[in-house]
Design brief:
Helix content of chain A: over 70%
CATH class of the domain at 25-168 in chain B: Alpha Beta
Number of strands of chain B: 18
CATH topology of the domain at 41-127 in chain A: Serine Threonine Protein Phosphatase 5, Tetratricopeptide repeat
Radius of gyration of chain B: 32 Å
Largest sheet of chain B: 6 strands, mixed
CATH topology of the domain at 25-168 in chain B: Rossmann fold
Oligomer: heterodimer
Structural class of chain B: alpha/beta
Structural class of chain A: mainly alpha
Largest sheet of chain A: none
Largest interface: A-B, 79 and 85 residues
Number of helices of chain B: 19
Strand content of chain A: under 5%
CATH superfamily of the domain at 41-127 in chain A: Tetratricopeptide repeat domain
Order of helices and strands of chain A: HHHHHHHHHHHHHH
């Protein structure tokens, strides 16, 4: 009798709690997909795809494919982004942006050699294309060619003074190279451009703790990181780091 | 006699029953759940969840729960190891001395007015997930009640033993981390929760062995610098050293009415991506079903879509390029998605071999590639013609050589010589430019690449194309500052040399 009551109670609780077993996974995901159709980012994508049919020449079609690729990249749909960028390159091979878009997608797919070719082509077409130099920096960083990465990031920031992502990666690469003061300069530059950029404070914390041996500044930077990113996935660990530095 | 027999049988039955009931009980312990969001921490939701579960998991016939108070020092060490501070090995030996077989670990995230709670029972020896349960609920208690009932129904001694046996021979996988790829994602804090939910869902699959990420937190959250646009670089090795064959990571981005999730599976030994996917949901309600779909997809990919390719070459140590990506030197073992793949094997002095293979999933496909020595006869003839100033003849012979061995990197020197003759002796700057360009494009890592750029610069000079001349010189100075060709360019064109 006790067992029957127990089972009945279990069924009741399982049905009361909103959990994934209640509705089939497929049905729930279908509902979710419907919601995404109304997302602005997807509406923009649809508009661009419609525009393709009325584009007057290959140049314009290439431009639109490039824009589509960029939005897909923003979403994180790297394979689609690469395919769109590939179309853009095919239609207008002289477009630095198209080669850049293709290169950065390939880079995220870990297809480094192909990414390098595309990014080099982008900068050979437009040597002032800062984002391509930045991605070349990332490529060199992944390959652990840190000195080359620094050169590429420096090139990117010399072309775009507000390129905080490039400054962040420059500072981070200099940190890896144990060039503490130079790294700090790059990070301070990020702070002057975008003071609410949370990862900066974690990076500064690491720099002060591990390279510049300044425990006080390190703890302050980690605290600043948690202030800007209270829901950081590693929040529990960061609190331990702060505690260890303050003890 | 009959009476005696019956008595013996009854005695035997009692003895058997008593043996069964004396079977050693398996010892579990619950550790405090990790609060993944600030609001969950403020409510002390992690400790509350663990405490509710600890009290509701009544010790049964085959298991017993050890109270967390009895293992406080172990829990403290576990927290330090999770923060990357403590010693994991010391933690393991301490766990053994406490005679705990399984730990129930988990996490709590609070988003708005609902909670995502995940609980997993893991083997303390290898941190394999033996049972997992997760739930979205409007309060911690309801979620814990659900988990408790789920454990009661689905966690049996038989299931546990079966899972232990089965997982021993399965591919080992672990979730690394899901980066929050834009500001909205960072503010929402979905990355940590999604990693946990996916961890639970992978733990529930039967054809892969998932390792608990709590154990790996010291690896995942190591004090790594945060780069923009570069994720998970360099962490494969750490996973491989822990016996984990596949690492899952990804990125989560949040837009109005859209949560986008990119995920990939890396082979940790080869440090390469073997599977990649993308999904999109409209709201947080979709996170758990999506994680289940992705877990199924990853399990399917590892078991039915990924195969192993073993390449040997004669001679060995040849450079292997698979699908256009340099993959190392032969002999080589790589995991690849099933289907057709192109392979190029190159070795200096040998003709490059281009082959294509069809890879079967979940099998090892072996390929032996025999490389042919390049005959220098044609090249020597071309050089001879060049020495006799028979420029057109030399170009034709270099062409023949290039055409014959066009896949070999060794050909770059012939291409360079051809361009050189076209520019300097045949006064055909346009043709020379095309030749040098082809060298740069087709043999990007060749020894003559800097010379080719210099050749391009000289061609542009002859063509009076100053804009392109400037760009090419920039590339030459920037990328090959120490090459002789760059130095020579400095003398010819001025600049920094």
């Amino acid at each position: 009798m006790h067992r029957v009551i127990n089972i009945l109670m279990s069924i009741l609780i399982l049905s009361l709690v909103s959990c994934s077993k209640k509705k089939s996974v497929e049905d729930m995901l279908k509902d979710e997909t419907k919601i995404t159709e109304n997302a602005d980012i997807n509406k923009k994508l649809s508009e661009l795809k419609t525009k393709l049919s009325s584009a007057k020449d290959d140049f314009e079609r290439s431009e639109i494919h490039g824009q589509i690729s960029e939005i897909e990249f923003q979403k994180g749909d790297i394979i689609s982004s690469r395919k769109s960028a590939n179309e853009a390159v095919k239609l207008y091979p002289q477009s630095a942006f198209a080669h850049y878009a293709l290169g950065k997608s390939l880079l995220l797919e870990s297809r480094l050699s192909e990414a390098e070719t595309e990014l080099n082509t982008a900068v050979s077409i437009d040597q002032k294309h800062a984002p391509s130099w930045y991605e070349l920096g990332n490529l060199n960083y992944i390959r652990k060619n840190y000195t080359n990465a620094v050169t590429m990031y420096q090139r990117a920031v010399s072309l775009n003074k507000n390129f905080y992502e490039a400054y962040n990666n420059l500072g981070s690469t200099l940190y890896v190279l144990k060039k503490g003061k130079e790294s700090e300069q790059a990070f301070l530059k990020v702070q002057s451009i975008k003071s609410d950029f949370a990862p900066l404070y974690k990076n500064m914390g690491l720099l002060y703790e591990k390279v510049l041996n300044d425990k006080e500044k390190a703890a302050a930077s980690y605290k600043e990181y948690l202030k800007h990113r209270p829901n950081a996935p590693e929040r529990a660990a960061v609190k331990f780091w702060i505690k260890a530095l303050e003890n | 006699m009959k009476k005696l027999l019956t008595t013996i049988i009854i005695i035997c039955m009692f003895a058997g029953l008593s043996l069964l009931s004396d079977e050693e009980k398996i010892c579990f312990a619950v550790t405090p759940f990790i609060p993944l969001t600030e609001s969950a921490e403020a409510e002390n939701a992690g400790t509350n969840a663990a405490s509710i579960l600890e009290n509701s998991f009544s010790s049964g016939k085959w298991f017993e729960f050890r109270k967390s108070g009895e293992l406080q020092s172990f829990i403290d060490d576990l927290s330090l190891a999770q923060a990357g501070i403590g010693d994991e090995n010391a933690l393991l030996s301490k766990g053994k001395s406490l005679q705990i077989k399984y730990l129930t670990v988990g996490s709590v995230a609070k988003f708005g007015n609902h909670y995502e709670i995940d609980s997993r029972s893991v083997n303390i020896d290898n941190w394999g997930i033996m049972h997992s349960s997760g739930c979205s609920a409007i309060d911690v208690e309801s979620a814990c009640n659900f988990i408790n009932k789920d454990v009661e129904i689905t966690l049996t001694r038989e299931d546990l033993e079966k899972k232990e046996k089965e997982t021993a021979n399965l591919p080992i996988i672990a979730v690394s981390r899901f980066e929050e790829g834009n500001l909205d994602a960072q503010n929402a804090g979905y990355g940590g929760a999604f990693s946990e939910v996916l961890n639970s869902e992978l733990g529930a699959r039967s054809a892969i062995a998932a390792v608990e990420r709590t154990h790996l937190r010291s690896v995942i959250d190591a004090k790594e610098i945060e780069m923009c646009g570069i994720y998970g670089s360099g962490t494969d090795k750490a996973f491989s050293e822990r016996g984990i064959q596949y690492r899952v990571d990804g990125e989560i981005k949040v837009f109005p009415s859209s949560i986008c999730i990119r995920y990939k599976v890396n082979s940790t030994t080869e440090e390469r991506t073997v599977y990649m996917g993308f999904s999109e949901i409209g709201s947080l309600n979709g996170i758990r079903p999506l994680a289940r779909k992705i877990a199924q997809e990853i399990e399917d990919a590892i078991n039915n879509k990924i195969g192993t390719l073993q390449i040997q070459t004669q001679p060995s140590s040849a450079d292997i390029v698979i699908d256009g990506q340099p993959s190392g030197k032969s002999p080589l073992v790589v995991s690849l998605v099933k289907g057709e793949h192109s392979i190029r094997a190159s070795f200096q002095g040998y003709e490059s071999a281009d082959i294509s293979i069809v890879l079967e999933p979940a099998r090892v496909t072996e390929k032996i590639i025999k490389l042919e020595i390049i005959s220098t006869e044609l090249y020597d003839q071309a050089v001879n013609l060049e020495q006799r100033k028979n420029w057109k003849g030399a170009v034709a012979k270099y062409d023949e050589y290039i055409h014959r061995y066009n896949t070999s990197g060794d050909v770059n020197r012939a291409v360079y010589r051809k361009g050189h003759i076209q520019l300097l002796y045949l006064n055909d700057a346009q043709a020379a430019l095309a030749t040098f360009e082809s060298l740069v494009k087709r043999y990007p890592d060749s020894e003559t690449r800097a010379e080719a750029y210099f050749g391009m610069a000289r061609s542009y000079k002859s063509l009076k194309d100053n804009e392109n001349l400037k760009s090419i010189l920039e590339i030459l100075y920037q990328k090959y500052p120490n090459e002789l060709a760059t130095e020579e360019a400095g003398y010819v064109f001025g600049g920094r040399y």
